[in-house]
Amino acid sequence: MLTDVPNSVFSAFSFIGFVLVLIPFYWHLEAWNTGTCLYMGWTAIQCLNLFINSVVWNNNAINWAPVWCDISSRIYIGSSVAILAASLCINRRLYHISKVEAVVVTRQEKRRGVMIDLAIGLGIPFLQMILSYIVQGHRFDIFEDIGCEPFIYNTWPAYPLSKVWPLAIAMVSAVYSALSIRQFVKRKTEFSKFLSPHTNLTSSRYFRLMALAGVEVLCGIPLSIYTIYLNVTSFPVQPWISWEDTHFNFSKVDQVPAVIWRSNPVLQASLESSRWFTVICAFIFFAFFGFADEALKHYRRLYVFVAKCLGYESVSESKAPGSSVWKTKPGPVNVRGPLNITLPLHLNTHRRPQRDSDLSFSDRLDSVIILGDIDSFMDGHESKTDRPFSGQRAVMPSSAEPHPSEALELQWPDDHFIHVSSVPRHDLDAPLSVRPSPHISTIDIV
């Protein structure tokens, strides 16, 4: 039962609902889904309102913030009809789509559709806030663990001005929902052809919107009837005498401890069900739209963005985060020595097998180290090409290795032979220190 849930649990769920319901807001706003955006906006505002109240007035009923309570009570009154009004906007739009009519074709028609949705989703709640002041008996009430609540004087004008509005909106929304289902069944083939060119409203999103609005209607009508029933049977309906009588001592604030309102089962059920209704709406919305294809696409983009900010880059951003190949960005390697040269980092993915220290030179000639001048070396090479090579080949690695088939085999003359210890080692298994040769006078690199 919701009446047995601790207040701290409600605070946590109300804040989570506030965050979750706003996650799909951006891409629904891009698609001009005004009714859906209104639903998310009002649900998020009321979840945040309930969260703040449950935290500030946890285990107390002190009037800490009277101005905030004035604002909070207005939000409470507006959201009681705003969520159902947003569902009405959704069902109305789905009905026009089910008739195989162009929902929005030109910019003018888009603007007209948005204005009608705003009139329903914003106009009705603000009008409800204004009209409820007529039957507002005093400023507000503070219930321990609940927070600020508006007080509506239980007189007969309160029903047409305030209490019946949620039921009336839910019933009109139910009519639109039934008509859209009927039209869809009758014109299923035309409906599929109509939705195919509209990228902003796929068939999957259409059915999810229909399911969301249907759940709101099925939950809103019984809850509205139950609220009216409790007000009529549990509290006597007072006659309307005058404006002055209704607003007598208007600045009064009733502060009700939890032990008192929890001792009344009817009042406890009314308070708990009304505040949990909004939180449940937030989780229902996220269940329908938080795991859709467009949601997963935006989660993937966020994942890629965060990974890049952390220094990673994706080989394929079109794949799912679990299947992407990630690697760190290569940077330059600073070789600090006499010349202080900064070389680019070369990643060799095909590592050669480890060998003994004496055989740790490359078997391919990347750079040749020769002693003396180039002409004498080439003359000696041309005259002794038939003589087998008997010495070691000294190499230095370059950033790009030649293909084995293209490797150049050069034979050194005997008079240009250098000792192994004079050549720097480059493999991982080479010794850290190398003995310099006293016989080297000049070194030319070609």
Order of helices and strands: HHHHHEEHHHHHEHHHEEEEEHE
Could you tell me how far the N terminus lies from the C terminus, measured between alpha carbons in angstroms? 85 Å
Parts with pLDDT < 50 across at least 5 consecutive residues: 315-328, 332-350, 353-374, 381-410, 432-446
| CATH structural class of the largest domain | Mainly Alpha
Strands, count: 9
CATH topology of the largest domain: Rhopdopsin 7-helix transmembrane proteins
Identify the CATH homologous superfamily of the largest domain: Rhodopsin 7-helix transmembrane proteins
**Overall tally of domains:** 2
Side-by-side strand order of the widest sheet: 2-1-3
Shape: globular
The overall pLDDT average reads 74
Helix content: 40-55%
Q: Percent of residues in beta strands?
A: 5-15%
User: If helices are DSSP runs of H or I spanning 4 or more residues, what is the number of helices?
Assistant: 14
Oligomeric organization of the protein chains? single chain
CATH architecture classification of the largest domain = Up-down Bundle
Assign the structural class, choosing from mainly alpha, mainly beta, alpha/beta, alpha+beta, or little secondary structure: mainly alpha
The biggest beta sheet is recorded as: 3 strands, mixed
Radius of gyration: 39 Å
SSE diagram, text form:
Elements lengths: L6 H16 L2 H6 L3 H23 L9 H33 L8 H26 L7 E4 L3 E3 L8 H6 L1 H22 L1 H8 L7 H32 L8 H4 L6 E4 L1 H4 L3 H25 L3 H17 L2 E3 L11 E3 L4 E3 L5 E3 L25 E2 L3 H10 L60 E2 L1
Parallel strand pairs: 1-3
Antiparallel strand pairs: 1-2, 4-5, 6-7, 8-9
Helix pairs in contact: 1-3, 1-12, 3-4, 3-5, 3-12, 4-5, 4-7, 4-9, 7-9, 9-12
Subcellular location: Membrane
GO biological process, one term: pheromone-dependent signal transduction involved in conjugation with cellular fusion
Family: Belongs to the G-protein coupled receptor 4 family.
